[in-house]
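FAQ: What does the model actually see?

It sees only this:
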Amino acid sequence: MSRRTLLLSLVLVLTAFSCSAEENGPDGGLDTSYSAQMASTWHYAGAPQLVQVGVLASDADGIRVVTQGTVDIAFAYLGTDGSGEPEAGPTATAIYLPVPGTDASGDAPAIVSGANGVYQAEEVTFDSAGVWRATLSAEIDGVARQLSTDFRVDPESGIPAPGMPAPKTETLTVDSKGVEEQSIDSMAGGGNAIPDPELHEWAIADAIAQGRPALVLFGTPAHCTSRFCGPEVTELQRIAAEHPDRAVYIHVEIWKEYEPDSQVVNKGAAEWLLRELPDGTPQMTEPWLFLIGSDGVVADRWGPLFDPAEVIAALEALPSMAT
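And it is asked to produce this:
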């Protein structure tokens, strides 16, 4: 792929069509504004899926993340182009999902120093493609609030989804020749060694060819805008160490080259994640975690965050890996 500057819709950044915020502070004033932003992407019609939404607070101290507890979400269909009157759709309770290693101990949504994460609703099915609105209802820091964000639902998933054949991609490994180590793992830049070589031993194509289940994380720890990637790589290392016989474990770096004003995407990441929107704009979101079965079919996917317990349960549901 030639060098080009990509317009990326990264996690919590420009992934929503629009975002409305209720700006009442605890005293009814305008001290703090709150907004909802769609964190998950590539939603599609006709199949149950995870939906992840971030809640942000903005005040004189900057932008912070609302964490902990649960929020209620009501989805409404706005037509194919978003101009229609809202038609009521599914509802769900979304549970706070923390970034691995951050605090998640509270029972109610609040701004907690050092915490980071999103709210996740499970088994949400959209019956039509087009533009949808998610309206969140929650009591945040003692005040009832409603926040909404609009997002696109496609007729089919633009990237690999459960039930689809996994692309047989020759992703980079520690044995790849003629590539910089930072193209294998962005944390190896500046002369550093690859910090997780055990996650770079297998190419996706080789795992599929040998009939081995694979748990594959696409992310860029050194350049991740959301700051989710590094903790997720660490969590993948933990899962791999604790469940070595369930799958092969792979981390795919996003960037072959990364400069402030120009980036080149790794071929493996591009094959799985880089797509064009209907208007021709390139879009790539990350991080994503995919579980591939021994039959080479995508068994599940999570993005941008994953619940380790849910991932482990999905791993254990697969047939044992042949040695």
